[in-house]
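Q: How would the structure tokens look for this protein?
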Amino acid sequence: MANLSSAIDSVFWDHNLSSPQTLEGTARSVPGEPFPVDGARASRSHRIQQLSLLREGFPLGVIPAFAPSSDKRLGSFSLNSLLLSPSSSNWWAGLVGQFKPKKLFADIKTSISKAEEWDLQLFKDTTKHIVDKSLYSVGLWTQIALGSSSSLLLSAERLGDKEGIRKKLMFVHPLEKHDLTVEAAWPDLFLDHKGRFWDVPESLNFDISSLAPETTGLHYRFAVHKSKGHPQQVNAAETSGDAPPASLFPGLCAKAAVSYKASKDLWRPKEKDDNAKEEEEDDDDDESPVFLPYDIRLKEPHAAVSGIVGSTLAAWITGRDTKRRSPISADAFGSACCTFQKGRFSKLYGDLTRVDARVDVSSASALAKRIFHAIKRSSGSNKTDDDASGSPRLSLIFQQQVAGPIVFKVDSQFEVGAGKYGAQMEDLIYSLNYSLRLLESGKVVAWYSPKRKEGMVELRVFEF
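A: Here is the predicted structure in token form.
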């Protein structure tokens, strides 16, 4: 079933999305805004851990990625590789390198075309292009186990086309029925619903959440977020001049949310009792092959509906002088999802077709305000409401088995009530997934977003 936990994540500060904008490979969705399409969500494993596994399947351990650069001469294409990865029983470290070849090839081509003859000076000019520091980025990560379950992660990145170092500290402590996370970043990267990236100079997050229910039940979270400094758009070459999202301005905010999730099967094959299974085994040919599913979360054909409703309460303790946000606010949110799957994803061909359709309302108050303004416009008023959270979002996810463990997937998201035809596409992501039976529910994903002009290869576990 499509991930309904996004509904409660979208109003918080830690909805992590896959992104090749940094070596870490993740960005946060802007809190309070509609979140980008689910197809770009990262797995729980860190990017450096993914690279250590993925490099075994790529020539020389080099993994490609696409991401817009602030300097257009560098291009979008980059090559990433894990250079070092020492480890022990309770500690590991890793060094990641990134290389952007477009500018190097262009500069060498220009130097050769202008040279009158091949000489020592041409060789020196070529060498200068190779050592241009803007072409290279490097990231260092280390994780230390603190006891049996807690861990501390430290990271530092130096991006070649930018000044300064990107640093992050994360402390994770799983409890019996909750997860505790403390995270600080200088700067922190955010992604808004329009596909723009924002750097917040300083960010500190404290989050405690109950374990999300699998089918039906309550889920609650409490978080405190502090930010400092004026947000800056990352892909400066494509800066539109729009103001940063209000929730990213400096201040200290406390937020709580509670939600209830429910699901119902419209159709699902009935499980056979033990006697029926024994009779079927006796009737089956001993030489008939037994196919295990490529992904245990996609092993049953079914049709189901699910939904989630919840409410939030937020209070800005400092930073109340920003006119674009209320010091204290309460709101409601919800999602509804319909899923249909044909096939058990165990045969070589034609054994998986899946469609997920989900409608998300991230702010009930903003939706009511938008409807009120629409009624006023129909009566002659010109007043409009530009609050992005006021429009419901429709997400459509289509998956089709190509051959064996390979699945083609299309994720799309539409803003309902906008555009000429009553819905406007906000994001579209194409991906090829290669499921790994040994991981039970793991896959290698190669995805690309034409709108954001981003793409990467990553490893995801227990996600579809």
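The helical segments are 6-9, 47-54, 102-114, 120-130, 274-283, 364-378.

The first strand starts at residue 16 and ends at 18.

Upvote if useful.
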